[in-house]
Amino acid sequence: MAVKAPPADRKAGGIDAKNQDFVRFDQVDKKQVYHLAEAPHAEEFDESYEIKTCDIGSFLHGEEREKRSFAEELGGALQEIGFAILAGHGVDPKLYEEAPEKIVEIFTRPSLEEKLRFRAKRHGSVNQGYFPLKETSDIHPDLVEGWVFCRRAFDLAEDPVRSTRVEEFWPILEMEPFFRKMCLEQERLILPVMQSLLKFLGCDPHLYDEKLTRTNFGLRLNYYPPVPEEDDESGAARLLGHEDVDLFTFLPAPEIEGLQVLNRANMKWIRLTAPPGTIILNTGDYMQRISNDLLPSTTHRVSKPRDTELRHRERVSFPMAVYLWEEEVLEVLPGLPAVKYPPVKALQFHTRTTSKFYGEGYAVEE
Fold it and tell me: Residues 202, 294: contact at Cβ < 8 Å?
């Protein structure tokens, strides 16, 4: 199903829109109220709050005591703010150093006509493919081009679910091996993170091992071109305020300022910067659902840098969202009290939630 651009006037209204205008799509409790874009609203910032840095190497290479300590540290950080910074992850730093140049090439080497051949459509739960500038959602004119590659887009011969050809997804085919390698290296972190969070919640740490072995994921390449004066003055954000729909997201630390996180404790925004080579981790709606709201899906957005000179530079990011396959069931973890949410298939949960961005027709009903 191709995603069509909505009328321009509807998008323009998104600059002043609030998240609660679209609360009917949410399937976890979200009481926070915020504008989708930073400007022209006079919002408060929390300049003193620091996102916790957690050394996942202590889990990967440590004894049980170190694993327990890491689980408490990571779980506590995510329970408080929904974000943490991972150090000691072991992903080859050269991959993160080389990725930005390759991402720029993916977006700038093909013509727009060629890129539109890969325009996003739903594969399973996930809207996968190319999103033109200002068309990453129906509700806000985001100043970003996006490209989503799910597990189906990679040449993983051992993966029995792949029934498509990589040529169907990649505008520059020789890029696939590089990003495949990066995804596979990050995939090694999925079970350690999930085991840590289950341990923190008092559950069997291996409860999701089978579900998350060769699970689906979404690598999203974001290309933020230099901001023209007209768009700068419009108040449009680079990426609207939102919560991720997934279990959790791995985001290698971006070079240029922009990522902002909403601190629900005081409703102030935090400008998140992370050391080069680290991974920013945040939890999404799947996780909030199964944790019965103990691990929240935290609001974030990408705004233009405060330094106006940096607005004239291109910016890239490449988050990897961790999903469950469509037929898996999201249900509150065993042992958690006062269950708030009934079981629901990932397909229905995912597409209903993201129809906020892609239109009512995107949702798949049971």
Answer: no
Average pLDDT over residues 241-258: 96
Q: Which amino acid is at 236?
A: A
Q: Which of 137, 150, 145, 164 is nearest to 106 (CA)?
A: 145
Has this prediction a pTM greater than 0.85?
Answer: yes
**Contact 50/245 with Cβ under 8 angstroms?**
no
Q: Which residue has the tokens 């708030």?
A: 340
> Alpha-carbon distance 10 to 363, whole Å?
20
Q: Is the dihedral of CA 347, 349, 354, 359 positive or negative?
A: positive
CATH assignment of 8-359?
A: 2.60.120.330
- Please answer whether residues 325 and 213 qualify as being in contact, where contact means their C-beta atoms are separated by less than 8 angstroms: no
**Mean pLDDT, to the nearest integer, of 234-259?**
94
Q: What pLDDT score does 2 carry?
A: 43
DSSP H helical segments within 109-201, as ranges? 112-116, 176-187, 190-200
